[in-house]
Amino acid sequence: MELPQLESARAWLLELPMRRVFAARGTEIKLRKIAVVNLTAGDFDGWGECAPIPGFTQSIDEAWAELQRILPLFVSGESPELQVATARCALDQARMDIEASAKGVPLWQHLGGTGRPVTGGAVVSSPGDSDAVEAQLADAIDRGYRHFKIKVEPGWDHQPVGMAHDMAPDASVGVDANGAYPDDATAAKALDDLNLAYIEQPLAPDDLAGHAELRSAIDAPIILDEPIVDLASAKAAIDLEAADALVVKPGKLGGLRPALAIHDAAVDAGIGVRLGGMIETDIGRAHSLALATLPGFELPTDLGPAERSFAAGRLATPVHIENGLLYPPTGSGLGVEVDEDAIDKIALEYVG
Ligand code: OSB
Ligand code: MG
């Protein structure tokens, strides 16, 4: 679909205080730095989010520098390729929002999704800190989540998963090791005793063969996250039968279009996809929710209203959670109301 000529391309650099420190392997986030992008074309406008994670993607400084350099070029009719995946994602999302609005359909319909409710999931970080884990679980239960993804490592797995099952016996639990079990096959296999919905990234990112081998020893679905950075890496994991499902994160992949391509490749190969989070605001969460209504996304997601992560700074209408399910908006385009005044008020820098 041809977009009408862009009339404006704007971006804001924001800093949001976290509700609590997000601590996982190699990452500790207290203040979240992200950028939001707005494009206008004819009667329509679209929003997207650039949400880098330190140590996991290129930095916000790299992403912001690229947005500052490239956004003015779009308005003068050029369409240069962006090099930073999270910045590319923000532009792709804003364009998709405009495309769906111009068609008069919800974004999920434009993407080929169904608009069905999607299982939300709260991510529980701070491995080793049982008070912090208990507080996060209690908070998530309070907010209506029925699925938890717990950050685990050798020596910190049976205990937090047991806490989750005790505190919410009907909820489902998955774990994310961020590659923490490479030297401990016994501990990795013992995760299978924990009644888990999935085990995300137990071994090192480049150890596809090791994951393929572990799969045959374990019943719970093995899911890859870190090595899935584009369509080629997804196909490599599929070809080696390294996973039961692949994590799909639009930010890391450079947008909704590459995410759709990986969804399709996985479904063709008969494996699953899981919609992962990158601690986005309600703008990024709404985009991910639309994508998660595609048929391949059967596993619980990392998604939910952004206020579980941030202490302040609501940028858009939060996605709606009820009994653990997220209900995609029915309006055309992204379908959430973005609060530009709120964005202006907290912006550190602006381009446009
Ligand atoms: O491995 O999934 C991961 C956050 C930062 C870095 C890596 C990961 C994560 C998450 C997402 O788990 C958390 C969220 O979006 O709430
Ligand atoms: Mg992960």
CATH top level label of the largest domain: Alpha Beta
Low-confidence runs of at least 5 consecutive residues:
none
How many strand elements? 14
Shape descriptor: globular
Q: Assess the beta-strand content as a share of residues.
A: 15-25%
- Strand ordering within the main sheet: 5-6-7-8-9-10-11
The helix-strand sequence is: EEEHHHEEHEHEHEHEHEHHEHEEHE
Ligand species: 2-succinylbenzoate, magnesium ion
- The CATH homologous superfamily of the largest domain is called Enolase-like C-terminal domain
Report helical residue fraction. Answer: 25-40%
Number of domains: 2
**So how many helices?**
12
Describe the structure.
The protein is α/β, with parallel strands linked by helices and 352 residues long. It folds into two domains: 6-104 and 338-351, 2-Layer Sandwich (Enolase-like, domain 1); 111-327, TIM Barrel, CATH 3.20.20. 35% of the residues lie in helices and 22% in strands. The strands form three sheets. A seven-stranded parallel sheet has the order 5-6-7-8-9-10-11. Helix 8 runs parallel beside helix 10 (256-268). The protein binds 2-succinylbenzoate and magnesium ion. 2-succinylbenzoate (OSB) binds at residues 24, 27, 53, 56, 123, 176, 178, 225, 276-279, 302, 309.
Summarize the structure.
This protein is of the alpha/beta class and 352 residues long.
